[in-house]
Amino acid sequence: MMLTILSVLSRDSLGCQLCQQGVDVVYDLLETGATKEAIEAGLQKICNVFPDGEWKHDCEVFIVAEYEKIISILEADFPSSTLCTLMGACEYPLPPISSTCEMCMVGMIFLEDLASNELGLELVEFVLDYVCEIFPDTWYSDCQKFVNQEYEKLIVFVDNQFPPEYVCTVTGQCEFPIDPKEEGMCQFCQGAFTFMYDLFDFQSETGSNVIEIALDYVCYLFEEGATRDQCFIFINQEYDNLVHYIENEFSPKAICSLIDACDYEDPVYETECEFCRIFYQLALDLISFDATEDAIMELMEHICVIFDSKVAQKTCKIFIDKNFDKLIESLVQKYPTEMACEMFGACTM
C-alpha cells in the first residue's frame, strides 16, 4: 500500500524554510479563493526546493497525484511544517532510535499529533503512506516494512486515536512484559487488562465502540500461533461480558476471575460467619482502589459466578440479597473483613 516517492528528498534547513514559505503562499491562495490552477501552480513551486532531475520531477508528480488530499491537509489547519515533513523537505526532530519499538513509538506519536486534528479515514491513509519520511535512511526501510505489513490495523488505530504504546505493543514492535507461558494465564490476563486501563480512559473519552475495537486486537499481545487463536475464540465467547465489565469499571482481577482466566476454589465453610469472611475478602480483592459505588453494585450482580458449585453460587446470592446495602457501604469505605461481617450480623464479637 505504501506509495514509493520522495524517499530521497532534501532535508537541509534551507530547503525546509523554502518549502514552508511555499506552503504559506498556498495557504494565502486558499484564503483568497484562488482557482485550482493557481493553487496547484503554487504547490508546484514548492518543488523548486529540490535539485533539478528525478527528485524535482517526483515532487511535481506527487503534487498532481495527491492534490485533493494535500488541500484537505491544508484545510485542516496543519502548520506548513507538517506537509513539508511528510514530503521529506523538513527534518522531524527525532530522538535517538535504537530499536523497532522506539521507531514505532516515534512514528505513532507523530501520527497521534496529526490525528488530534480529526483527520478522517482518507487523510489517515494519506499520512500513513508518507509517515516514514520523518525517518533517516537507517530506519526508513524498517518503517516502510512495518507500515506495509500492518497497514490495515494502523488505519483503524490512527483513525480511532489509539495510544502509541498500545499500537506498538499489539503490532509486535514493542514487547509485552508478561509471557503467558512463563507467568500463567491469570497473571497474563490481569496484565493485559491493566495495560488497556492504563492507556485508555474508557469512561470519559471513549466508550463501548473503542472498548470493542481494543478487544478485537488485544489477542495480538500473544505470539502468533495456537495461543493467539485460542485467545480470539475466548474473546469472541466472552465479548459482550467483557464490554460490560470494562464499561462498569471492573478491575482487571475481577474481569479475569469472572471469565475463569483466574481460578477460585469454592469456599469451605460451616457457618455464615465463615462464609462472610471468605466472600467479603474476595470482594475486597476484586474491587479496584478507587471503584465507584455504581461499579461495586454492578460487580455484586456478577460476582457469584466465580464459584463453580451451584450450592456456593446460591449461598452467595442469598448473602448478597440479605446484606446488599450494608455490603455496598462497607466495600465503598473499604471496611476490614472482621468489622464488616460484624456489621452484617454474620459474626459476633
UniProtKB/TrEMBL annotation:
Q: Which UniProt keywords apply?
A: Disulfide bond, Glycoprotein, Signal
Q: Which residues form the Saposin B-type domain?
A: 12-94, 97-178, 182-266, 269-349
User: What does UniProt give as the signal peptide span?
Assistant: 1-15
Name a biological process GO annotation: sphingolipid metabolic process
State whether keyword Calcium applies: no
* Any single GO CC term annotated in Swiss-Prot or TrEMBL for this entry: lysosome
Glycoprotein found in the keyword field: yes
What name does UniProt use for this protein?
A: Putative
